[in-house]
Design a protein that fits this description.
The complex is a heterohexamer, with three copies of chain A (about 425 residues) and three copies of chain B (about 120 residues). With about 425 residues, chain A is mostly helical. In chain A, about 70% of the residues lie in helices and about 0% in strands. In chain B, α1 runs antiparallel to α2. The chains are: A mainly alpha (about 425), B alpha+beta (about 120). β2 of chain C pairs antiparallel with β2 of chain D. Bound molecules: adenosine-5'-diphosphate (3 copies). Chains B, C, D: Pfam families: P-II.
Chain lengths: ~425, ~120, ~120, ~120, ~425, ~425
């Protein structure tokens, strides 16, 4: 116990605090990009997936992820995280590692709420959230970070483009697809009716909070206060996010005639998600390239999902986290200064990266498909149409989020 | 101004406007003005709960759609509104018809029935 | 109540109220009531774009200014409104005139035309 | 439709609605529609200050309560409104009475006075 | 001077920054849970109790709290905190300790504004705020943390469940009770008319900010960057808050038929307040239990106050801070792994904890009763009814907080 | 590389994170203090000046600021910040220094957006933002912090009252003055029509965020985790801000009859801006005095600009950053405990401070005048009046920020 580095511990704990704060960012982005009549429900979902997730990850998930590996597939069960976990060889106390991993788990879980917003039963969301934090995320996490087979293969996902963001994004895709679109989103004639977010300033605040927290998300994943690598991570994280925003703005300007605010905000997040896998091993220039790719990808992905596939994802979670997480992870195989294609490393790393992305996608689609279908067939996944029209705040929670303001009733409840 | 002009005021549930508008447009009624209102009538608010305290809201959100017509008969508008808006449940709302003395189009000064003609 | 009383209802672009009010005040019309409304008529919403999806809003924001008058002639109010509000562009709005049966001032119980006199 | 129908429109201070509603309910008037409006009349806004710059708002927030009645006499409604709303201070507001040509209940198609009967 | 630990200092300063940020959390929670017409006033009260408190605590309060003790009752006066304070034996510079204590003092002061919201004269609030930061809090603080009699007794209040939160909560109770309820809250016939908060998303953001800041509040109270204890505190803090939210949600769901958003948010805060006293010496499981107790307590306390005692506390400050602070402090006597009842430590610690809670409650009730009564009899405590109906923003500050939005006038000003 | 201090690096990086977060503060203050119809545009401007600035500062600006000095006037060009920069003699990695300087640059750039709010073409703002981050700020920064002539002279601007805030403020003044006032702000008869901000709670949140971030802004400028100086900076920063708020409140109360919320918030910021230059070398009492001076100055400056000079600065950026930045820098010559007039240091330092303030003012006025004029004559600086009346959100970005709320149309678009 005497050997822990106080400095490393302090950094990991501060980073955990920053990642915790990202929950506020998610809540604000998701609330801001959806309708006022469901804002309380979004808040509640974000709050509860964090709290339920914190508890169940402590009780069970942590051990499945970091317990001694069984054949590289799953960690050994140990309730209440009471084991010693000496095999991890940490320089920080186990509890510091636990809290840091807890907030990561909660991040993966919370991504889904935005994509399934405005029509999911609260009860069912709670159940989903319990299962993903207890089992689905920890097992995938074990594969990559817990001593599992993907980590062994050399898969590089430094702070979780794949294990956190893609996993969350694919779960979001499965959920949004099984749920179906919000009432009124797609006309019978194939027309698309946009449903606007109710609070762009709040959404933007959420993006700034997420970006702020991301310095902890990426930086803390060093698990030690190493001067050079921390500094490098801050720089690459910031450049990729900046480039993501610039790119998304440019593309939206070109394609839709005006620089779109919410898409540009998505672009910054896309850059952040994209750089997360390789933030430690790509150069600043590589980071800017990855940011640009993510910023471009996110706009096209949103279009594809919303307009072609007609999967209704109100906040763009699938595109930002799922698709850009995958793209960013793959990009490591190209831009890694050691082993990357562009740096003469050949296709070896790239193939491993592709394998990891595919494996996690498969795992997530399979497990969440079963999960959501099971929920749908038992307690039901979706509220009824009266509840949806009047809003989840009123029907699911008996509240209204903005009691003193006159709503634009006309627009608010068009079916 | 030989033809009488009427204002038909329809108070109904929010969320029904798009359907009503389309139906009225088909009838040739193109101009209308919509307002958010709160109403009470037969329909009462549903009991709710704020931080543990039960209460019943005394007013419900409604929309008021006003359209001033002359050539299209009032009955036609009423029939259309009844068809589109009726659910048979309490809260479907009411239609009030008022006499109108005159109409003027600001843009070109047209008066009376001509001012209601919506060809630019 | 020998003199007829009318309500003049002006539906026009937001942002024009201050000018209209001043002009009406000059005419001696001091009392008016203003409401936010949404309208459709000849003027259509402009095509826009939300997160890449094109759409056209079906209603436009307007203001409704109501003033009940008796001694000031309806024509004078209409003329002033036309002068102040006309841009010649579609969307200038419409004026509707309605008969009023009675007016009461709550403060002192004044009825009819006297109730419209705005000297405190 | 032998009995005449009227709309009584009461424009008064916000915060007075609950009292008015209760008083009207006692009289048997159960249906009403309420709108937020801004008004000017005898009462003027109070001078205020924004970041050091003095200004006087030209419009004041008011509520407009509309109730269409027939069997309950207009006078009774006016009396109740005067009783409940009068403070004697400027700004108590005004009551306007309008003729109504017809009333329809959407739910079941009732017309005229029957449509105003609020028994479900 | 040469001996200060830069690492310890950095941690305490960062923690102070986090606790400062809790002011934003309080402001958002309190503004969000009250009406739009008073939002500017709430902001102003939060800003001014922090600024006035910062100044007077520096000028006077710090010395009353940490000056050389006079009989364990009060520290020796020393203006402008210019003394050496060597008797504290700090490993960090005095100024680091001063700023950390300043933000704690401001936390205690600001709790009151929520409970007295929407009807207190601004001037009178300023006066209250001055006195609590100058005298009432520092003296109580001295008893516990400044070398005073409660500390000597062995009273354990690690980061201030009692000295900060309960003290704030009891002051809030006295204030709210002397002020009387908001106009229209309670009918003459005993009926209760709920007055809804105007901005639930802002309120939720405030809760997330508070939770984020609490990692500094509890963690920084170590006053040193000790790896093991910092990590332990992060874990127990997070588990208690999570459990508080889960519990409050469950209870509200059971009692009121739907999972209530604002009560669940209160539950998270209740868990945080509850764990504050024992965060360092209870186990993770103990923390979860304390969180659960706090989450249950807060719902029942809100009901009791609001519906039985008819004390009108718009944001639940008394229940969250006062009652859950007391409950959490007492729980230390039960759950402390050394000395707690459940761990075979007997009733000794429990009795000391009860004594401390009672002493601070008495002190606070007595002093704030005199304070608020004195204010009431001189400059008056409450605005007149016209000011209350039109809103404090307009009448006290000549402003409106949301100038571009149409208010629901009807609801806003019902008496 | 082996010699970097991990602790120093951690502190600088955390401080960079805090300064980054100030962008959220700026965005919220500026959005909150302007109209709802332009909120999305403000967000977009804040986001893009940060992202564009981050990129161009990395590509070019950093080298102009910190490259080997050419005659004390400008650093040697080096693209993509790839040089070694060993002449800086840093104890932290270059990349840590780069990210810290990047967020400072972005702060200077973003100040302008508030003053030019609600009427500037988005495209033109982007261009301005590019140039200030690429050239104007880096060169001024070189003079003071990069080994340039002002630094050599002994000019003391610890964390940038002048180089960041005044520079931003003077650019804001030039911009607001060339642009002209918002439609309807000043009547033909010389009357002034106030245009209210739309979201005071958001604005207040922004101020709290800025204050929080300022601990990093001032504290991190030590560039090392020195216990004593960090602690001292936290204390002086906090006291000046507190005093600024108290003073501004008092003055507004006296002059306008009521304690004004938005002016008091400006007062806190004025205190922060004012103390930034001397936070390390003035005593706590000196800091309180500087805060008081700034709090007084800001109220009078806002009045002067708005009512006498009729420069329309919606958020008070010129007064807060420009004027109080200058005043605070000059105050160093008076209050510095070593070299200050009041401490018997004579007028020497004071004269140097005056020189520095004047030099930066001249530089900024000259360069931004040319810049804004050039933009005005080519692509145009201001939107047309229809765009201004309908709002930049709609016309520049095709969005609305609060789609579910009924706007007060009447007030919103009065010309
Ligand atoms: N007498 C009336 N005067 C004015 N408005 C009325 C009147 N009666 C009903 N309304 C309006 O019509 C709405 C619907 O009426 P309600 O009686 O609840 O439904 P229904 O007619 O379907 O039973 C009310 O909420 C109110 O706004
Ligand atoms: N027949 C009508 N009944 C009620 N409101 C109408 C009618 N025609 C127009 N309006 C209102 O007047 C507004 C302006 O009318 P519009 O026809 O667009 O302009 P213009 O008369 O200048 O061509 C509409 O948005 C609508 O609110
Ligand atoms: N002639 C009018 N036409 C339409 N609305 C009016 C008229 N006169 C008054 N009002 C409305 O009634 C409100 C109260 O009227 P006001 O004259 O201020 O009070 P009082 O009648 O008590 O002196 C006004 O704010 C306005 O909304």
């Amino acid at each position: 116990m005497i050997d822990y580095s106080a400095l490393d511990t302090l950094w990991v704990l501060l980073a955990a605090g920053l990642v915790f704060f990202m929950q506020a960012g998610f809540a604000m982005v998701e609330a801001g990009f959806t309708r006022a009549k469901n804002a309380g429900n979004i808040i509640m979902k974000n709050l509860m997936d964090f709290t339920v997730g914190s508890l169940i990850y402590w009780i069970l998930g942590f051990s499945l992820m970091f317990g001694v590996s069984n054949a590289g597939l799953i960690g050994g069960v140990n309730f209440l995280s009471t084991g010693l976990y000496e095999h991890l060889g940490l320089t920080i106390p186990k509890e510091a590692f636990l809290i840091f991993q807890t907030v990561f788990c909660a991040t993966a879980a919370t991504i889904v709420s935005g994509a399934m917003a405005e029509r999911t039963k609260f009860k069912s969301y709670l159940l989903y959230s319990f299962v993903i934090s207890a089992v689905i995320y920890p097992i995938a996490g074990h594969w990559i970070w817990g001593g599992g087979w993907l980590g062994e293969l050399g898969f590089h996902d430094f702070a979780g483009s794949t294990v956190v963001h893609s996993l969350g994004g694919w779960a979001a895709l499965t959920g949004a697809w099984i749920l179906g679109p919000r009432l009124g989103k797609y006309g019978k004639d194939g027309s698309i009716h946009p449903i606007k977010g109710h609070n762009l300033t709040l959404g933007a605040l959420g993006v700034f909070i997420l970006w702020f927290g991301w310095f902890g998300f990426n930086g803390g994943s060093t698990l030690e206060a190493d001067a050079v690598s921390m500094a490098h991570i801050f720089v690459t994280t910031n450049l990729a996010a900046s480039m993501g925003a610039v790119m998304a703005m440019t593309i939206s300007w070109t394609r839709y005639g005006k620089p779109d605010v919410s898409i540009t905000l998505n672009g910054a997040l896309a850059g952040l998600v994209g750089i997360t896998a390789g933030t430690d091993i790509v150069s600043p220039l590589g980071a800017a390239c990855i940011g640009a790719i993510a910023g471009l990808t996110v706009v096209l992905a949103i279009e594809l999902l919303d307009q072609k596939l007609k999967v209704d994802d109100p906040v763009g979670a699938v595109s930002v986290h799922g698709i850009c997480g995958a793209v960013g992870t793959i990009a490591v195989g190209i831009f890694a200064t050691e082993g990357g294609l562009l740096y003469g490393g050949g296709a070896q790393l790239l193939l491993v990266q592709l394998t990891g992305v595919a494996a996690i996608a498969l795992w997530t689609f399979a497990t969440t498909f079963v999960l959501f279908k099971a929920i749908d067939l038992t307690i039901g996944l979706r509220v009824n149409s009266e509840e949806e029209v009047l809003g989840l705040d009123l029907k699911e929670h008996g509240t209204e989020s903005y009691a003193d303001f006159e709503p634009k009733v006309l627009l608010d409840t068009i079916q | 101004m030989d033809q009488p002009i009427f204002k038909v005021e329809i108070i109904t549930r929010p969320g029904k406007f798009e359907a009503l508008k389309e139906a009225l447009n088909e009838l040739g009624v193109m101009g209308m003005t919509v307002t958010n209102v709160m109403g009470c009538g037969v329909q009462k608010g549903q009991p709710a709960n704020y931080r543990g305290v039960p209460y019943t809201p005394s007013l419900l959100p409604k929309i008021k759609v006003e359209t001033v017509i002359s050539e299209v008969p009032v009955e036609a508008v009423i029939d259309v509104a009844k068809k589109v808006l009726r659910t048979g449940e309490i809260g479907d709302g009411k239609i009030f018809v008022y006499p109108v003395s005159n109409v003027i189009r600001i843009r070109n000064g047209d008066e009376g029935v001509t001012a209601l003609d919506n060809q630019p």
